[in-house]
Amino acid sequence: MYRNEDKTMVQILSDSSTLYSKSQAMNIGLEITPLVVIIGKDNYREFETIDSDTLLCKIENGAIPTSSQPPIGEKMDLYNQYGKDQDVIDITMAAGLSGTYDSALMAKESCNYPDNISVFNSKTLCGPHRVLVNEALKMAKDGKTKEEILYMLEESAKTDVSFLIPFDFDFLQRGGRVSKTAAGLGGLLKLVVCMKKSDDGRCLEKHSVNRTLKKVVLSIFEEFDNRNVDDSYHISISHAFNEETASKVKKALVEKYPNATIEIFDLSPVFITQGGPKCCAIQAIKIVK
């Protein structure tokens, strides 16, 4: 928690879509609530009671995981803890791709200090979500007001461009993120299919279908050009046990954007549950103040 010159306090909250564990978050002044993986009757908090290696092992042994947002009661407890005497900004992963945002709104209305809680729909996830949260934390530490931080979040979120290359469509189709027809097409033809997050962040849409990864990456670069992505953007590659693809994509990105910040992340259990093993997300966002 941080205090600015006007004695206004701002606490940043989020969820594990940022790819931060709870302990990692606490070390940088962030509070997060872990997303949940469900296998049969068992619920697992990612980064706490299940990691990606364990999940992959369970999948290989026939488990069919699903995912869920953090418990609403846990959100309410944090809102009551921090909202008593300070402003709170909770930066959630994209509404539509998760119920986290809607659940957070319900927690806000039910907590003791709703006027001090701002719930922000990032309209994104993973790498760009992490970038937004990191900048919000920096601004809070620098004494910026709630309004200044929310303005940054609103304007920066508009620049997000996100793609997903899935390799097992059953996971996307089971989670309702692509249609059964689209899932069947990709799997049947053994093509490399690229999905693009819609501008409102609520769903994934087909972006391109090609026979090689190289052509898919070129189609992503074309869209990056259309969206004026340049070296001022933060670019991330997040993957589910697919270092080979992630490294190839990063090499191409470095050649095109030699001065951009480009990072590779391992996807968390919830995103492996949603995108499937081997999936790879390529995302870009720019901080605007």
Name some characteristics of this structure.
289 residues; alpha/beta; Rossmann fold; Hypothetical Protein Tm841, Chain: A,domain 3; 2 domains; 6-stranded mixed sheet; 5-stranded mixed sheet; 40% helix; disordered N terminus; DegV
3D structure, described in words:
- By secondary structure, this protein is α/β, with parallel strands linked by helices.
- It folds into 2 domains: 2-157, 3-Layer(aba) Sandwich (Rossmann fold), CATH 3.40.50; 161-285, Hypothetical Protein Tm841, Chain: A,domain 3 (2-Layer Sandwich), CATH 3.30.1180.10.
- Helices cover 40% and strands 24% of the residues.
- The protein is built from 11 helices and 14 strands.
- It has helices spanning 22-27, 52-60, 72-83, 100-110, 126-141, 146-157, 169-174, 180-189, 213-226, 243-256, 269-275, and strands at 2-3, 9-15, 31-33, 36-39, 42-45, 66-68, 87-92, 117-121, 161-165, 192-197, 204-210, 234-239, 261-266, 280-285.
- It has a 6-stranded mixed β-sheet, sandwiched between helices.
- The longest helix is centred in the middle third of the chain and has 16 residues, at 126-141.
- It starts with a strand and ends with a strand.
The CATH class of the largest domain is identified as Alpha Beta
Low-pLDDT residue spans: 1-8
- Any idea of the CATH topology of the largest domain? Rossmann fold
Overall pLDDT, averaged?
91
- Count of extended strands: 14
Q: How would the global form be characterised?
A: globular
The N- and C-terminal alpha carbons lie at a distance of 21 Å
Q: What is the assembly state of the chains in this entry?
A: single chain
Task: Output the number of helix runs.
Answer: 11
> Biggest sheet: strands, sense, closure?
6 strands, mixed
User: Which structural class is indicated by helix and strand composition?
Assistant: alpha/beta
Give the strand line-up of the largest sheet. Answer: 11-10-9-14-12-13
